[in-house]
Amino acid sequence: MATSLGMSTNEQATINRSVRNGTVPKYEIRKPRGSWWRQASSRFVNWFAHRWYHRIVRWTAPLTAFWLSQTPMIFATVATLVRFRIFDRLRTGPLSSAELALLVDADEQALLRILRPAAALAILDRLPDGRYALSAVGEQFCSDSAQPVAAWTELMDRMVLETLPQLPEAIRAGDSLVHHVHGKTCWERMAEVPGTNELHDIACGRWTELVVDSVAQAYDFSQAALLIDVGGGRGSQLSAILKANPQLHGTVYDRDETKAAAGAMFLKQGVSGRACHVTGNFFEAVPKGADLYTIKHVLHDWDDVSVVRILSNIRAAMSHSARLLIIEGSVDHNLGPMESIRAVWDLSQFATTWGKSRTLDEFAKIAQQAGLRLKTVFPTQTIDTLILECVPV
Ligand SMILES: C[S@@+](CC[C@H](N)C(=O)[O-])C[C@H]1O[C@@H](n2cnc3c(N)ncnc32)[C@H](O)[C@@H]1O
What is the model's pLDDT at position 50? Predict the structure, then answer.
């Protein structure tokens, strides 16, 4: 039986079997670049996270368990504050509950029911005169923050929460949550829910902006002339790499929805003379002609069979001397304090996109299925961001 990916179910089963049980091709893991004290402090944080996090949770088990049972209320508090733009409104100074209620057109007594827990949890600060102010945590949720958390919160609120009651059924069926509930991929679903495409692009773009400099520093892009960033979104990564490498030209290859934002990013970063956006579908084809291809934080959105299809299309576009850089975290490499975040993130991928986080060995086996060889792993200064250099077989 042929599928939407153009593969028979037998071919898909072979891919799944090889990724699960096949032998692992050899690859090299480089030492991270950077100052010795940064590496030493990162090792210390890793050691501390491994040794102490689980102990602290064990010592406080009843309290931790209670808080876990209350997480829907905590999320609801944060999501409502984001929806009412209360973090943004407090940017210009503290406000009383009456003033906030007026601004957001809410009942003051009911609004207090979210302001109080927010203050108790240090999501907001409550001043001695009773007014509310931005706390250090609250600042992260402002829409102009460098952090992507406000956009993620709104995206979760609009896309995922309504599907959560179906999670047990989706787990029984082995289906992604969004697909199980709506019968659609998350991209198709986002096209139906107004505003979610923009929220997704903002969230991905901000996250990327936090890590791109470490990517640009960790790999030598100086020998390349043309880079194609497959699924490059709003162009944040491409812009940072082009800025650091004046000889380089680049293309973002992505869905049409990202075109305007990528164009604006190229202008803002002063690289519009060397960068462009090409609309297309990486399940159908990838443009030829680059000596370097990158694909960052895209493969974790897809199951193994889809990833083999995407990588095979990139491989088909590559000349024999071209390189592909897969830029992602891996579940088994030096995660330190990110380990718990990565695990929760993995569930979020299962819920929304049907994707998953992978080990380095899984990446090596998947690359092999697509006619590529994972040659070298370059760690970056950002924990959870690795550069996996692949070459054509
Ligand atoms: C998680 S985002 C990553 C964006 C960017 N690489 C980054 O790290 O900021 C996944 C990207 O894949 C793109 N994408 C999804 N399906 C696609 C398809 N079939 N063809 C091309 N791009 C696609 C999305 O539009 C989105 O920009």
Answer: 72
* CA 254 to centroid of ligand 1, rounded, Å: 6
Q: Record the tokens describing residue 283, joined without a space.
A: 């399940």
Residue-wise pLDDT for 325-353, tens only, equals 999 988 876 655 566 777 888 888 888 88
Q: What is the DSSP letter of 158?
A: I
Sign for the CA dihedral angle at 350, 352, 358, 363 comes to positive
Closest CA to 186 of 163, 154, 153, 205: 163
Residue 293 lies in a domain: yes
Against a cut of 0.90, is the pTM above it? no
Pairing of strands 132-134, 124-126: antiparallel
Tokens 């956006």 — which residue? 277
Residues 291 and 170 in one domain: no
Asked whether residue 311 falls in the same domain as residue 358, the answer is: yes
Q: Does residue 341 belong to any structural domain of this protein?
A: yes
Tokens 């508090």 locate to 77
Whether 281 is in the pocket of ligand 1, judged by its Cβ within 6 Å, is yes
- Based on the fold, state whether residues 176 and 243 are members of the same structural domain: no
Q: What share of the chain is helix, strand, coil (3-state, %, to 5)?
A: 55, 15, 30
> What amino acid positions are annotated as catalytic residues?
300
Q: Cβ distance 275 to 239 under 8 Å?
A: yes
| Cα 298 to averaged position of ligand 1 atoms, centre (Å) | 6
For residue 95, give the DSSP letter: B
Instruction: Specify the residue for token string 């990838």.
Output: 286
How far is it, in rounded angstroms, from Cα 141 to Cα 153? Answer: 9
Residue 110 belongs to some domain of the structure: no
Averaged pLDDT, 71-97: 96
Looking at the 3D structure of the chain, how many domains does it have? 3
| 204 in contact with ligand 1, CB cutoff 6 A | yes
How much is the pLDDT for 205?
Answer: 85
Alpha carbon distance 211, 386 (integer Å): 10
Question: Do 302 and 353 form a contact (C-beta atoms < 8 A)?
Answer: yes
Angle at 175 (CA atoms; ends 191, 231), nearest 5 degrees: 45
Q: What is the pLDDT of residues 269-326, one digit of tens each?
A: 999 999 999 999 999 999 999 999 999 999 998 989 999 999 999 999 999 999 999 9
Q: What angle do CA 150, 342, 199 make, to 5 degrees?
A: 25
Domain hosting 339: range is 9-30+208-392
Using CA atoms, how far apart are residues 81 and 333, in angstroms rounded to an integer?
Answer: 36
Q: Is residue 317 part of a domain?
A: yes
Rounded distance between C-alpha atoms, residue 104 and residue 111, angstroms: 9
